Amino acid sequence: MTDARLSSAMASLAGRTGAPVDVALILGSGLGGLADAVEVETVIPYGEIDGLPVATAPGHAGQLVIGRLAGRRVALMQGRLHLYEGLAPSDIALAVRILHGLGARTLVVTNAAGALDPEMVAGEIMLIEDHLNLTGANPLVGPNDPAIGLRFPDMSRAYDPVLRELARAEAVEAGIALRTGIYAGLTGPSFETPAERRFLQASGAQAVGMSTVIEVIAAVHCGFRVLAFSAITNEATGGPDQVEDTIETVLAHAETGGKVLAVLLARLLPRL
Q1: Which residues contact 59 (CB under 8 A, 6 or more apart)?
Q2: Once rounded to an integer, what is the mean pLDDT over residues 83-111?
């Protein structure tokens, strides 16, 4: 069996993307500015890729950007797809498989996340070590295409340990305070209740967001080495002093974190 949907998407890109790319990146809410440093060769709106839904979330441009960044040829999803947009997990997996089809074997995922850890503050960056998939969804449900990956992929090293160590070392050399922790992925789009946030803390997570876990499962399935970062955008401790969350605040703090992440990625990309 072959994935007809993936084949159709890649056919719609034929002749438009050039040589294979070295590294793929998925940019989260408010982090699309990371694409500004790319020496752009091609920009393809999602609507021009057969079968790929159009991104509707605030702060997501919804376009595939191909070019050079820090000396590497990259493909960036400038804006991602979310379950809360009414999309299926297979829609989100399709975006990841397209990046793999462009030749990349390393995937860098970024997101905006709330801090469950009270020591984290907005504007900081967290290196994701592991995740909790609490969306109730999995992109691998249904028939498996063995040409893409195993029926039962192992997730014990979903976030590549070697790449994580490299990121930590580069952050130290650059003087960047890099937090580390577990990311809890929920469906959204509502922000979590205080009780939910306390539950997530008790579950061992340090940050919470509405993306990433579906993409990472799909990425591991098709053979990507994954490195992922959260830009901390709001306090989500669930305490009595919890302030009201707004998307405007989230996007503003994500932009701040994105500037720090851009410095780190400029150092990392030549070594990926």
Answers
A1: 29, 30, 31, 32, 79, 247, 251, 254
A2: 96
This prediction's pTM: 0.95
Name the pLDDT band for 1 (thresholds 50, 70, 90). very low
8 annotated to bind ligand: no
| H/E stretch holding 173 | helix 161-174
Tell me, what DSSP letter sits at residue 82?
A: -
Residue 19 confidence (pLDDT) above 70: yes
Residue whose pair of structure tokens reads 């995740």 in the numeric block: 131
Total domain count, the chain:
1
Q: What average pLDDT does this structure show over 126-131? A: 98
What are 78's two structure tokens?
């400038």
Residue 80 annotated as lining a ligand binding site: yes
88 annotated as a binding-site residue: no
> Is 112 annotated as belonging to a binding site?
yes
State the angle between helix axes of 247-268 and 161-174 in degrees (0 to 180), rounded to the nearest 10. 90
Q: How far is CA 175 from CA 1, 167, 168, 261, in A?
A: 49, 12, 10, 12
CA distance 232 to 172: 19
Q: Is 12 annotated as a binding residue?
A: no
CB 257 within 8 A of CB 232: yes
The pLDDT assigned to 91 comes to 95
- Residue for token digits 């305070």? 177
Domain with 107 in it: what CATH number? 3.40.50.1580
Is 73 annotated as ligand-binding? no
For residue 69, what are the β-bridge partners? 72
162: Cβ–Cβ under 8 A, 6 or more apart, which residues? 225
Most confident of 180-184, 189-193, 235-239, 249-253: 180-184
85 marked as part of a ligand binding site? no
Mean pLDDT of all residues belonging to the chain: 92
- Domain of residue 15, residue span: 4-271
